[in-house]
Amino acid sequence: MFLKIYPENPNPREIQKAVNCLQNGGIIIYPTDTIYGIGCDIFKTKAIERIADILGERKKKAALSFICSDLSHLSDFTKPISNNVFKIMKKVLPGPYTFILEANNNVPKIIQSNKKTIGIRIPNNIIIREIVKELGHPILSSSVKDDDEVVEYTTDPELIYERYENLVDMVIDGGYGDNIPSTVVDCTSGEIEILREGKGNIDDLY
Q1: Parallel, antiparallel, or unpaired: how do β-strands 2-4 and 139-143 relate?
Q2: Are strands 117-121 and 97-102 parallel, antiparallel or unpaired?
Q3: pLDDT tens digits, residue range 104-151?
Q4: Contact 198, 184 (CB under 8 A)
Q5: pTM for the full model?
Q6: C-alpha–C-alpha distance, residues 104 and 190, integer Å
Q7: How far apart are CA 19 and CA 98, in angstroms?
Q8: C-alpha distances out from residue 118 to 107, 128, 186, 199, Å
Q9: What would the DSSP string read from start to end of 137-195?
Q10: 196: Cβ contacts below 8 Å, ≥ 6 apart
């Protein structure tokens, strides 16, 4: 399914279609504040395995994150974080950052990395945040990459649909995406360490 949702004022009925798809074990491709993402319900094991097959990577090694609607999900899936890290997250989120935190036992084992960490994303994109909010818990997420090493990331949702229509259940057209990934910040030591400089301004983290 190819679903157009307007980012300025998402139609609740269209949002619900995406939520229903996730609840039924479907995989969706959706806009973020950076690159288009591919995701599913974190509690649908078969959907997670399908995403791992699509990505062509072992689940444990795939760059998987949680998309959250706000910071209220943090304590459900991560171990306690320092006040310093929480203040930074509160300051820059929603925004183009992925925060690597220690996962707690609520994170399905199939998703946890070997280091027992999880990436947390709260994109500055109302479409995906509304979907997650209606779903009631985070969705699993990874970036949609292009086979072209020069392009790396496809920004046109219609081209994404052409490539993925037989692999996923829904592609959401929320307008052109970006081709710069999020800034990845490792917070597992209680301090912040930049693992990848992306769209998020590093100066805002200090």
Answers
A1: unpaired
A2: antiparallel
A3: 988 887 776 667 889 999 999 999 999 999 999 999 999 887 655 545
A4: yes
A5: 0.92
A6: 16
A7: 23
A8: 8, 19, 10, 20
A9: S-EEEEE-B-S-TTT-B---HHHHHHHHTTTSSEEEE-S---SS-PEEEE-TTSS-EEE
A10: 181, 182, 183, 184
